[in-house]
Amino acid sequence: MLVYGFNWKRYRERVMPAFARWLTANEVGEVEALYAATRLAYEEAFLPEAMQSARTWPRAAAFVAALPRGPHSLYEYRLLCSAEEFTALSDRYLYRHVPHLHRCSEALATVWSAIVEHYCVRGEVLATIEQQARPKRIAVGLTSQPEEADGKPLQLSEAYFEVASPDLEELDAEGFFLGQHPNVLRLRGWLAAISPAALALFEYLACGRRALPFEDSFTSAPQETFSSTSFGHYIGYLTPAEVKRLTHCLRTVTAPEAEAAARDYDRFRQGLAAGQGQDMRLIDEVLPAYGANLLAAVRLAAERDLGLICRQL
Question: pTM here?
């Protein structure tokens, strides 16, 4: 899992209103313009002619054009595309009916994810001083003129190069790694011992408790695309207000030391191997390995008035 800064203001005021006009009145121009600037649109432009019909955008546009637009459907689309109203109704544990389309569309979900990634995540630098000090990777574009870096010609390796668009030269936003699913369970158990509110907010962010727009109402499986980067892997988010509340819950908390967490996990695995039966601990009771990353992400986002969004690797 990776956690990123999330520009909630841009999401609420620019991205979702454009989707609302698209779904309710089939006004496609604004979303199409937003999508055209994304990395996914750029990469899919290089598909062979025979595969152009399989691109994400034409399939999403055809799906939305065919949507029913009766009074009940329009009301559902309004809820779905209002960032505040949808968020208030997005708790799967609390509501049996989360706003959703009458059927899911992998293409539409991918368009939404690509736009969110480009406009609400990529520009939000959520990094510690140590992360910002790391050397940046140079993106090498294929051009007709020789390029230079630091006064020296670039040497293109046959083993690796990256094709860069002039409009997509920014590198990916820094994310905070929370580990794979077992460690997310350890984080969840650790937070449960600190605060019920901290546990619930973390479940919204990283455990699938919060629904996302345009996903299947019951599942949120990652979607594959033709691009080198998979979109549709977002699994939850927090608004800036929720981030501030989580920060307050964790204001006096110190994360477990990495060495202590590693030793605790080793003891847990030894208990599994020994078959301790009813005395065996649950994975949720083991100290988390990435508690410091979670605390850093939450506190930095709160300082910068950002939300948080979580992507599954």
Answer: 0.81
